[in-house]
């Protein structure tokens, strides 16, 4: 669109991530209006050229593009409710956490008030906003994405449109995000073990990074096995992982660690073996994780 490099944008919510988004828009030259329940948080952005709206209605009316970054969808809808009438005809981009069901509900609310809605997810930390390799994914109104992509792309160079289903960004965020806590707890367990020996947690970082890189390298293989349903040529089998379960328990006793968080994983391995997947690839755990009778649903991804 003509003048796309100067698209007025409003950012609602100035926590650490919202502030990073607003700063990226300001630095890219987009006229930026901001709103936050605690107005004082806007001061650093105002000093850089942003305009602080005194009300939500003023904030929404200031721009054709409204980007929200609050904690949950409930928080977003509650904040926008006083200005719902002003949303008609505007593009609303929601960047917050929540389930696919929450995203669909937010989409219905936005459409009900005449807004054009695009839901998104940021897969990185605030300090990475604006970087060339920072990933942001979106689902919903394709017209909004096409029209405002130049502005949205200043938030991260790896900007992806997933499809027209309004819950796709939330779906992918939760699907990918499930790896975060187990991975972090695994690192924290290792750090506790090293500290118990008088060693620094920092000394294991390079080894952990290599381990994560190895995991990344085998994900395409696992994905092919899962998509094909063929687990018959394992690089690592369910039984191999199951054989390692006693080692986790022994390690916990020796290092004085609480390793109870492993028990659900060990139970999952046993269930897979009992279901006939013992000699299959570890990716066959996917089949055990499926709810009984659940079938894949068609989508636009």
List keywords for this structure.
single chain, elongated, 13 helices, alpha/beta, Rossmann fold, 301 residues, 2 domains, N-(1-d-carboxylethyl)-l-norvaline Dehydrogenase, domain 2, eight-stranded mixed sheet
Account of the 3D structure:
By secondary structure, this protein is α/β, with parallel strands linked by helices. It folds into 2 domains: 172 residues, NAD(P)-binding Rossmann-like Domain (Rossmann fold), CATH 3.40.50.720; 112 residues, N-(1-d-carboxylethyl)-l-norvaline Dehydrogenase, domain 2 (Orthogonal Bundle). Helix content is 48%, strand content 13%. An 8-stranded mixed β-sheet has the order 3-2-1-4-5-6-7-8, with helices on both faces. Strand 4, helix 4 and strand 5 form a beta-alpha-beta unit. The longest helix has 24 residues.
């Amino acid at each position: 669109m003509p003048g796309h490099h100067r698209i007025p944008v409003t950012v609602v919510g100035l926590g650490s991530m919202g502030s990073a988004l607003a700063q990226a828009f300001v630095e890219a030259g987009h006229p930026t209006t901001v709103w936050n329940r605690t107005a004082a948080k806007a001061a650093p952005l105002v000093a850089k050229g942003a305009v602080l709206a005194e009300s939500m209605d003023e904030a929404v009316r200031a721009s054709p593009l409204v980007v929200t970054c609050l904690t949950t969808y409930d928080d977003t809808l509650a904040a926008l409710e006083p200005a719902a009438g002003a949303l008609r005809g505007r593009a609303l981009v929601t960047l917050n956490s929540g389930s696919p069901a929450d995203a669909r509900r937010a989409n219905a609310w936005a459409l009900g008030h005449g807004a054009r809605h695009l839901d998104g997810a940021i897969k990185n930390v605030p300090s990475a906003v604006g970087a060339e390799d920072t990933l942001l994914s979106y689902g919903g109104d394709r017209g909004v994405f096409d029209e405002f992509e130049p502005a949205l792309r200043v938030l991260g160079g790896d900007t992806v449109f997933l499809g027209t289903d309004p819950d796709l960004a939330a779906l992918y965020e939760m699907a990918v995000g499930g790896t975060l806590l187990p991975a972090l707890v695994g690192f924290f367990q290792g750090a506790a073990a090293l500290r118990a020996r008088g060693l620094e947690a920092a000394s294991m970082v390079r080894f952990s990074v290599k381990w994560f890189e190895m995991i990344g390298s085998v994900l395409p293989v696992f994905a092919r096995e899962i998509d094909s349903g063929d687990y018959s040529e394992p690089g690592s089998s369910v039984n191999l992982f199951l054989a390692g379960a006693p080692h986790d328990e022994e390690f916990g006793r020796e290092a004085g660690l609480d390793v109870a968080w492993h028990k659900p994983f060990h139970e999952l391995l046993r269930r897979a073996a009992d279901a006939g997947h013992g000699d299959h690839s570890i990716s066959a755990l996917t089949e055990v994780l499926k709810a009984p009778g659940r079938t894949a649903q068609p989508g636009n991804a």
